[in-house]
Amino acid sequence: MSTLKNTKEKGTSTFLRTFAREKTEHTPVWLMRQAGRYMKEYRDLKEKWGFLELCHNPELAATVTTDAAKALKVDAAIIFADILLILEALDLGLHFEAGEGPVIEKPIRSVNDVNSLPDINAGQKLSYVGQSIKNTIHNLGPDIPVIGFAGAPFTVASYAIEGGGSRNFEKAKSFMYYQSEAWHNLMDKLVMHTAAYLNMQVENGASVVQLFDSWVGALSPSDFKEFAMPHLKKLVASISKDAYIVYFGTQTNGLLEELSQLDAHTIGVDWRIDLDKAWDVIGHDKGIQGNLDPVTLFADKDTIKKRAIEILDKAEGRPGYIFNLGHGILPQTPVDNVKYLVEVVHSYKSK
Ligand code: 1CP
Predict the structure, then answer these.
(1) What percent of the chain lies above the pLDDT cut of 90?
(2) Cys-Cys with 74: which of 25, 30, 50, 194 at CB 3.0–4.6 Å?
């Protein structure tokens, strides 16, 4: 299949038209972590394959993405990969332990660890993700655009330094404070490799790229401004203009004002703030995405509908809102409720 030249070509996609601020028949919806353990199709594949094996195999990865998007009838598909694959490409060693999450085998703990990171061509080393994108586009056709993604530098650096998930980020923050120069060096390297990785995804047909900054809310506004935001700005400026950019973080309510200065097209928000208030702070020149508490999907259908409609009402039918959760779907989520949520969003008519 040939590479798409203009990946922002909107066609009939409600999702892409929303980025272009066109009014659409319904609000576009996709859900973070829409492929995963809560789905039977995924659990069946996981009987035979490990998670990283699925990511590394462009045919299977595309199948996981395609199955989820078709089953849920969402307006966009996110490529099956992980924000930590870039650390694997940087030879830090990555595996997933059942029930324990990711483990970085050779975490970064010193100036020397930063200096000795290999010089890689991230686009080439992670080219299997580009192939997954091509296969997915082939499976889904032009109406369901494919979202590429990467971790934002703070969140990826925190995994690299902590060696895995963390509650309080003591190691990452200590590194930031005591080895500031090495911290900024590490962030520079991550920005360079992440830009190359994302631009390879755009060349392979991703029309939107999302930066996941899942743990940025652990930072105070001052630390965010000093240690994360300058790098985030550099990354956003290095991403191809052929794709729209969504920046997503959780617990970012104290950071939204600063984030309004980021040159992303759309900012994701979690559920800890009302959508209209968040949009006022972000500014209506930018789009907004998210806002439903993922745990609402454990409630009865009436509650799911009520909460979804409250959010849609707050968007006031303004072009630029993409419905999503405030964080990823949890593994125990009933799949019927997820399908029901998509139906509610699609049948909603703004007042
Ligand atoms: O089967 C399994 O047990 C593996 C579970 C799993 C899956 C399905 C992991 C391990 N990653 C993924 C896929 C994934 N990861 C996708 C594509 C799937 C889709 O959305 O359809 C995406 C977008 C991610 C992104 C990701 N990975 C984030 C950002 C989003 C978020 O949830 O905040 C993060 C933080 C990761 C790291 C990661 N990978 C996997 C887990 C369990 C985690 C989180 C661990 C932790 O809490 O620290």
Answers:
(1) 94
(2) 30
Ligand 1 atom closest to the Cα of residue 166 is 48
Query: CA-to-CA distance for 218 and 198, rounded, in angstroms?
Result: 25
Question: Domain locations in the chain?
Answer: 7-347
**What pTM was computed for the model?**
0.96
What CATH number belongs to 7-347? 3.20.20.210
Q: Which residues contact 41 (CB under 8 A, 6 or more apart)?
A: 64, 67, 68, 71
Angle CA 44–329–194, to nearest 5: 95
Tell how far the Cα of 11 is from the centroid of ligand 1, in angstroms: 30
* Cα 76 off chain centre by: 12
C-alpha 256 – ligand 1 centre gap (Å): 24
Residues in the chain predicted with pLDDT less than 50, given as ranges, are: 1-5
